[in-house]
Amino acid sequence: MKLLKHVVRSMDQNVYIYFDENTKEGVIIDPGAQAAAIAEIIYKNGVYVKAILLTHGHGDHIGAVEALKVKYNVPVGAHRWEVPVLADEGLNLSGMVGESTSMALDLTFEDGDEFKFDNCTLKVIHTPGHTQGGVCYYDAENKVLFSGDTLFYGSVGRTDFPNPPVKDGIGYPSYENTDRLLGSIQTKLYTLPDETKVYPGHGQQSSIGFEKKFNPFVKG
Fold it and tell me: For labelling alongside 31, which of 13, 93, 162, 203 has CA 20 to 30 A away?
């Protein structure tokens, strides 16, 4: 597998293109903006895009979704709890980071679901905290984790953004909280192998082993 990264400098958002080096089939993860620049990378590397996967629905990670979806005629997937976030420009905060936008999903995930393309399987790990429907995508074979805004190098995601109520019998508050975020990291991410490479939504890459040892917010 090969990983390419494009950084959108407005908020240093990381856009990932993850693909099989032999067949060139791959996915785009969190295309926050600059669709033309992302498409140029895809073209230069001959990638056949199979889907756009979102770790969560905030505006700094979705700005180029619609343009790339139309260009490649591919589905867009995220956790089902992000549906109301993506549909509401107030909740997805897109107006704060650029042009206001709203969208619907083609694929909705649950915790433990898998998205497969070619020889790669990405497991969906639900990590509520930054948003209710925040997820990470994990390639167990290659020990690669796309952590979105859940886990950063030496840090964790913010927990003070508004969230819609989840109507499935679980009474989550209108705002996420730090305990839920740290619990997601501790119980779902820190159980992965230490050598797992972590590719976050902002900033530099890390590893699970490094974060367990040195992250000041949550130790392993």
Answer: 162
